[in-house]
Amino acid sequence: MELFLSLCLGIGLSASCGFRVFLPMLAANIAAMSGWITPGESFDWLATWPAFFALLSASIAEIGGYYIPFIDNLLDTIATPAAVIAGTLLTTSFVHIDSPVLHWGLGLMVGGGTAGIVQAGTGLLRLLSSKTTAGFGNPVVSTAENVASFGLSGLAIFLPIIALVLVVLLVMWLLKKLLSLKKS
């Protein structure tokens, strides 16, 4: 059961990385420093004050950057690989498996894959918003992404099974939308 809950936590936080890269890592840092969650041994750095200040600074810069027209589209380009890395790192940091290959492989496939799919969906949404509103609708999209990242991070920490269900539904919906765009 512990493995299942840690996977739910990791997947929920990874999906949140698809909306914002650093906010879920900051939420995990605060939760780990408060004792609500426990990262693996080699990820003890996640529960430190230097990590808090670095992740807080990065979160503020990332959130602020998404409210600047056209910078937000540039950030989406950078955020795609960064979200996969952050999703992999978060899933790997909470899933406790003895085999390093399985541990990191699972983190990459499940965590990185989930973060990448969500990031692809949000990137397409921002691109569509930029095309249809000349970028004026992007702050609304950014606000919704901030709320989604913060909310899903909180769910992943406090109600990981519910977060997993929401992530599965979100990924299925995004894959359906992405495949329908490919066909047209």
From TrEMBL:
The keyword Ligase does not apply. Pfam families: DUF4126 (PF13548). The chain crosses the membrane at residues 48-68, 75-97, 155-175. Residues 7-175 form the DUF4126 domain. InterPro entries: DUF4126 (IPR025196). Keywords: Membrane, Transmembrane, Transmembrane helix. It comes from the Bacteria. This is DUF4126 domain-containing protein. It comes from Dyadobacter psychrotolerans.
